[in-house]
C-alpha cells in the first residue's frame, strides 16, 4: 500500500492510493489528496477494501524503494495472460462482474414488464387507507375495519408514495404510505355529491327521515 502523489490536479484530487493484494496481485487505485491524513486513509481503506474483502492478515507499506517502480517490491499490476482461462486474472474478474451486471439488467427488464405504472394522484384528493398494517386492539380480526379514512393527500413523497393527513390521535403512525395501500374515495370527489333523499309521503303528509340526533 502506497501513495502516488503530486499528480496533476483532477476533480480536486492530486494523489492516488495504490493497494495491491500480495496473493492475487490485484490492484486498487483510489483517488485521494496529497494532504491525506491517517484518519482519511483509514476511511478509504474501510470503504474500498474492508467493506468488500474483509480485514487482511498483513498490511505492508512500501518504503525505501524507487519511486514509480513498484516491481522492485515484487508488486505490479496483474496483467499476465493465463492460457487456461484465456484471460488475465484481473480481466477475468471484470468480465465476471460485467456478466453479472448484464444478467441483473435482464432480470430487471423482465420484472419491469409486470409492473404497472403508479396512478397520478394530486394533493388534496381523498383516499381510503388499507388497514392490514395498522395495529388494532379488537379481539377478533373479523371485527376489524378493512379500510380507514378517508384521508387527504398532504404531499407527494415519490411517484408511488404519498403522505396523508392523519388525525392527531394517530401521531405514532408514520404518515407516508405506498400507493398499493390507497384506494380513491370516489364518493368524496368534487362535483360528485349525492343529492339529499326525497321526502316520505305518510298519510298525504310529506315527512323526512331523521338522519341523526344532535342533542
UniProtKB/TrEMBL annotation:
<feature type="domain" description="Tf2-1-like SH3-like">
    <location>
        <begin position="124"/>
        <end position="185"/>
    </location>
</feature>
<protein>
    <recommendedName>
        <fullName>Tf2-1-like SH3-like domain-containing protein</fullName>
    </recommendedName>
</protein>
<dbReference type="GO" id="GO:0003676">
    <property type="term" value="F:nucleic acid binding"/>
</dbReference>
<dbReference type="InterPro" id="IPR036397">
    <property type="entry name" value="RNaseH_sf"/>
</dbReference>
<dbReference type="Pfam" id="PF24626">
    <property type="entry name" value="SH3_Tf2-1"/>
</dbReference>
<dbReference type="InterPro" id="IPR056924">
    <property type="entry name" value="SH3_Tf2-1"/>
</dbReference>
<dbReference type="InterPro" id="IPR012337">
    <property type="entry name" value="RNaseH-like_sf"/>
</dbReference>
Amino acid at each position: 500500500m502506497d501513495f502516488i502523489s503530486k499528480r496533476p490536479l483532477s476533480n480536486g484530487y492530486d494523489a492516488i492510493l495504490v493497494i495491491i493484494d500480495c496473493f492475487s496481485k490485484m490492484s486498487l487505485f483510489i483517488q485521494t489528496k496529497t494532504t491525506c491524513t491517517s484518519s482519511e486513509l483509514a476511511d478509504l481503506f474501510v470503504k474500498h477494501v474492508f467493506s468488500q474483502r474483509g480485514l487482511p492478515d498483513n498490511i505492508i507499506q512500501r518504503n525505501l524503494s524507487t519511486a514509480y517502480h513498484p516491481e522492485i517490491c515484487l508488486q505490479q499490476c496483474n496483467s499476465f495472460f493465463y492460457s487456461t482461462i484465456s484471460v488475465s486474472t484481473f480481466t477475468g474478474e471484470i468480465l465476471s462482474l460485467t456478466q453479472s451486471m448484464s444478467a441483473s439488467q435482464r432480470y430487471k427488464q423482465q420484472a419491469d414488464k409486470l409492473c404497472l405504472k403508479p396512478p397520478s394522484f394530486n394533493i388534496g384528493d381523498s383516499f381510503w387507507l388499507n388497514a392490514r398494517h395498522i395495529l388494532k386492539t379488537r379481539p377478533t380480526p373479523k371485527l376489524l375495519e378493512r379500510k380507514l379514512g378517508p384521508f387527504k393527500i398532504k404531499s407527494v413523497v415519490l411517484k408511488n408514495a404519498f403522505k396523508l393527513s392523519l388525525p392527531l390521535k394517530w401521531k405514532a403512525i408514520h404518515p407516508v404510505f405506498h400507493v398499493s395501500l390507497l384506494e380513491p374515495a370516489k364518493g368524496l370527489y368534487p362535483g360528485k355529491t349525492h343529492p339529499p333523499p326525497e321526502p316520505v309521503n305518510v298519510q298525504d303528509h310529506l315527512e323526512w327521515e331523521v338522519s341523526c340526533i344532535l342533542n
